Amino acid sequence: MKKSFVRKVIGKVYPSPSSLKINNELINEFHEYLEFERHYSEHTIENYLRVVNQFNNYLMKTNKRSLVEVGTSDVAGFMAFLKTISHLMRVSQLNRLSALKTFYRYLRKRGKIQKNPCDGIGGLREEKSLPTFFSQQEINRFLTYLEDRFQKKPNFLQARNRALFEILYSSGLRVGEVVRLKTIDLNFRQKIVKVRGKGGKERIVPFNDKALQAVEDYLAFRRPKGPVKELFLNYLQQPLTTRGVRVILNKILAEIGMVKKASPHTFRHSFASHFLSGGAEMRIVQEALGHSSLSTTQIYTHLNWDNMKKVYENTHPRSHKKED
């Protein structure tokens, strides 16, 4: 008879200490894999580990199996739990399934399991939704507010916030990329920045005069404690985190009274949308964003449909109304 990984205590079934130890070790090893081999961002790693821990907790409360003893039915049960009990939207369910697939691909690669239990899980179709972005008027309102606050009360926090969002918008960086920026990554003479993107890939992206002035003003207040190389710091003069950027953004949006639901990534979407609206070629936008596939960039063409429709109506020879 197969040795059980659980033990009974006062009529209840709990995971054994050995099972808990195995699961913790697997999760810690997965963490190191994502960070040092895949070079994923802090935000991505945090999301992946949260999902694996959530699945682990689900197993402990239901089938009482360790992470290496699960089958397809266990994953299917977890997905049903997310839908019926947690009431997650399909896109959130899909993101969690994707994280579990990555985790179990890693375990199979390391020889911990023979088959990925996520294989064969179907019935989840990604909801096609366009990314949220700011209009040019909204962006101008947001950035002008930060500039006015800095002019009225020039200090570290006002200068930092202004420089942070000017860089986000002018270069279209991911939030994880902007918090990893180092001061030496910026070339002020050429107005370009070296970015370390997903998978450790590097790319060169330009930034504009507004961002240049904002960063120069910010550096006058930047006083790191110790050998801190990161460009953007928190109020303790330590490296800013992705969570910190989201908190700062939400606070500013509340101050301005902008009710649109937004995230730091909204600035990246806005950069791409406005860039294409201005006539930039798709390949240029792809390179600036660091997309490995052009199909990923093409979603932004949908954001500019109104603009493309006007161009079509004004230029296509068969689209003009007949003259009387």
Give an overview in words:
- There is one protein chain.
- With 324 residues, this protein is mainly alpha-helical.
- Helix content is 56%, strand content 6%.
- The chain is built from 14 helices and five strands.
- The protein has helices spanning 17-37, 42-61, 72-84, 90-109, 136-152, 156-171, 175-180, 209-219, 242-256, 264-277, 282-289, 294-297, 299-303, 305-315; strands spanning 6-9, 12-15, 186-187, 192-196, 202-206.
- The strands form two sheets. The chain has a three-stranded antiparallel beta sheet with strand order 3-4-5.
- Helix 2 packs across helix 4.
- It is globular.
- The protein starts with 5 loop residues before the first strand and ends in a 9-residue tail after the last helix.
- 29% of the residues are buried.
- Residues 1-14 have low confidence and may be disordered.
